Amino acid sequence: MGVVADIFDDLISLLFPRICNACGDRLMKNEKLICTGCFVNIHRTGYHLIPENIVEKTFWGRCKLERVAVFSIYNKDSGIRKLVHNMKYRGIKEIGSELGRIYGNDLVESDFLEGIELIVPVPLHPSKERIRGFNQSAEIAEGLSASTGIPVANDILTRSSFSHTQTKRKRVDRWSNVEGIFGVTDYERIEGKHLLLVDDVITTGATIESCATELLKGKNVKVSVVALAATIN
Ligand SMILES: [Zn+2]
Known about the structure:
Shape: globular
CATH topology of the largest domain: Rossmann fold
Largest sheet: 4 strands, parallel
CATH architecture of the largest domain: 3-Layer(aba) Sandwich
Number of strands: 6
Bound molecules: zinc ion
Number of helices: 10
Distance between the termini: 55 Å
Radius of gyration: 19 Å
CATH class of the largest domain: Alpha Beta
């Protein structure tokens, strides 16, 4: 039985080679989504160990966040860029949960998660989620939850469907564009809680700022933030 199953597996991988989502090389049998080389070499910021890091500073004067960290840096050649791209545009949602799980393992070994009780993913625009079939931030949140044991609440933040595509707008436009499109469904559920807001990539920070501003209207609510990556300008 075992031998037959092994031969069958070998045949399948010969016909449909599984490839690394970061570098495109063939994966070994024991590798999942990302090859060992990319896993080891992916640039990690270590920002969860650095209070007042450069990403945290971009939110100063915009909204009060307790702690901010990102797993990696997003630029043209970064492994994380290819991974995020394959997750979002090739629909490989398992990349999100796997990277969330990996990052969660780093975070639990530090003080970063101290006091945090609930993970809240940034909601995706409803029509985008319908097309993509999943919300990448929710996948990352599931992975983080798996390795940290902190529960996820997918129904705390809502996003209205009345916003236009943001990609071609300048920063000032984008800020006003996301302002007011997020809402909180139940302030009682988050009262007195320290929340971990989760996004895939932080660019201008406008989305995080907008979500955090709504969450912070809750009584004695604290907000910390993690993302898989940030673009550093
Ligand atoms: Zn690779």
